[in-house]
Specification:
Blueprint (H helix, E strand, L loop, with lengths): L1 H12 L7 H24 L5 H21 L3 H21 L2 H21 L12 H30 L9 H17 L4 E8 L2 H8 L1 H18 L5 E6 L2 E7 L3 H13 L5 E7 L6 H29 L1
Antiparallel strand pairs: 1-3, 1-4, 2-3
Helix pairs in contact: 1-2, 1-4, 3-4, 3-5, 4-6, 5-6, 8-9
InterPro entries: Diguanylate_Cyclase, GGDEF_dom, Nucleotide_cyclase, Rev_trsase/Diguanyl_cyclase
Protein name: GGDEF domain-containing protein
Organism: Glutamicibacter nicotianae (Arthrobacter nicotianae)
């Protein structure tokens, strides 16, 4: 969306007068490059390489430094001052806050003081006034804040289960698959656990759905307080949950889940699986599901044997 808006912004800029044919050619090339980026983003969606987007942002920031700090081209200075908050918004949507801040702030901290006190526009009609400088800083900071806030809210609404606060299926895919790829790349183990609550239907039938909702929330609170930093808690639906354990073997995940189960006020069953070379999350969850039902059958058999002996 931001790239499309920049494309429109650049097209409008083509109507301005240019100080040289070279600058005009660069403006046309920028429009062509931005159009190519918009088309590529539309085609690749989440598979679009972010390093290309970062290089594009660096190219625009370099042009900002050149025109605002080292030129007296009035049209380009005005254009770059208007464009800079859009670049900040663009980066805040695509990149983590730290990357955006450490890219935007140094450029602004160097270019603005230099252009005001030392640049070639000093003492001419093209010099940026205090109001322009304050407006640039204000709208740049606002653009970064809005971009990060909207992105965070968007991810929360699309990747987080509204009832429990655990990740949902979209969140599991968005965060679990990269964790699996990282474990494969660095040759480290990764395990998952699948669990569902025992007697959840009875809770809903006897005490109502509000009681069932409270039980699900309590389970997620207990899981989150018991797992390690970097582990994931995801709700598949109903009373089924998946936990992702990076840098963990199946045996270690089994011991961790037994410890968590032992300290839980609610009853639930679980199964575990460890990543194999050809795995994805779906195949791992399927094996964990089989392990869980094997565990349930074993526990049922043990209960039947104990009842028979008594």
């Amino acid at each position: 969306m931001v790239a499309a808006f920049l494309l429109v912004f650049y097209l409008v800029n083509l109507g301005n007068d240019f100080s040289s044919p070279l600058i005009q050619k660069l403006a046309v090339a920028r429009v062509a490059g931005t159009l190519a980026m918009v088309i590529t983003v539309w085609m690749l969606l989440d598979r679009f390489p972010l390093w290309i987007a970062y290089l594009g942002a660096l190219a625009e920031l370099s042009a900002f430094v050149v025109f605002v700090g080292f030129s007296v081209n009035h049209e380009q200075i005005v254009f770059r001052l208007q464009e800079f908050p859009l670049i900040a918004l663009y980066m805040s949507w695509l990149f983590p806050p730290a990357v955006t801040r450490w890219t935007i702030y140094p450029v602004m901290a160097f270019t603005i003081p230099y252009s005001v006190f030392f640049g070639p526009a000093v003492g001419t009609e093209h010099q940026s006034g205090p109001l322009n400088v304050l407006s640039l800083v204000f709208f740049t900071v606002i653009g970064m804040f809005v971009g990060h806030y909207v992105k965070r809210r968007f991810r929360q609404q699309t990747q987080v289960d509204a009832l429990t606060g655990a990740l949902n299926r979209v969140g599991l895919s968005a965060r679990g698959e990269p964790a699996l790829l990282a474990s494969r790349k660095h040759r480290r183990p990764l395990a998952v656990a699948l669990l569902d609550m025992d007697g959840f239907k009875e809770i809903n039938d006897q005490d109502g759905h509000d009681a069932g909702d409270r039980a699900l929330k309590e389970l997620v609170r207990h899981l989150r307080s018991s797992i390690r930093a970097g582990d994931l808690v995801c709700r598949l639906g109903g009373d089924e949950f998946v936990l992702v354990f990076p840098n963990t073997t199946q045996g270690q995940a089994q011991l961790l889940m037994e410890r968590i189960e032992g300290s839980s006020k609610l009853a639930w069953s679980f199964g575990t699986a460890q990543a194999r070379a050809d795995d994805n999350l779906s195949t791992m969850i399927l094996r964990a599901d089989r392990d869980m039902y094997a565990s349930k059958r074993q526990r049922a058999a043990e209960r039947g044997k104990s009842a028979g002996e008594s």
